[in-house]
Write a structure and sequence with these properties.
With about 90 residues, the chain is of the alpha+beta class. It has a domain at about 35-93: Factor Xa Inhibitor (Irregular), CATH 4.10.410.60. It is built from 4 helices and 3 strands. The protein starts with a helix and ends with a helix.
C-alpha cells in the first residue's frame, strides 16, 4: 500500500518540477502506418465497409465449372467485424 502511494507521489513531483521550455511540449498525434498488404487487397466503401476481389480465378481453373468461375469473379464485401479490423489496418481509407 505504501509503495503505490509513494509511486503516485513521485509521479506528481516529477510533473510539477519539469522545467519550463520556450517551445510547445504538447503531444502531437503520430502518423499511423498503413498495412500495405491490406491496402493492395481492400478498398473502402462510403458506408464504412470494404470490398475486395476473390482469389482463385487466374489460372489452373479449366476443370472448374463455369458457375464457380462466375462466383469467383464477383466482389466480396467485408463483415462488420472485418471492417473494424480493416479500419485499424487502413487508417486513412
Amino acid at each position: 500500500m505504501l509503495a503505490g502511494s509513494f509511486l503516485g507521489l513521485r509521479a506528481l513531483l516529477r510533473l510539477s518540477v519539469t522545467p519550463s521550455r520556450g517551445f510547445s511540449t504538447s503531444s502531437q498525434l503520430l502518423k499511423l502506418k498503413t498495412h500495405h498488404g491490406a491496402k493492395k487487397r481492400w478498398s473502402a466503401l462510403p458506408g464504412g465497409l470494404f470490398k475486395r476481389g476473390k482469389a482463385g480465378r487466374s489460372h489452373l481453373n479449366s476443370h472448374m465449372p463455369s458457375s464457380r468461375l462466375n462466383r469467383l469473379g464477383q466482389t466480396a464485401y467485408s463483415t462488420p467485424t472485418q471492417a473494424r479490423t480493416l479500419r485499424r489496418l487502413l487508417p486513412y481509407a
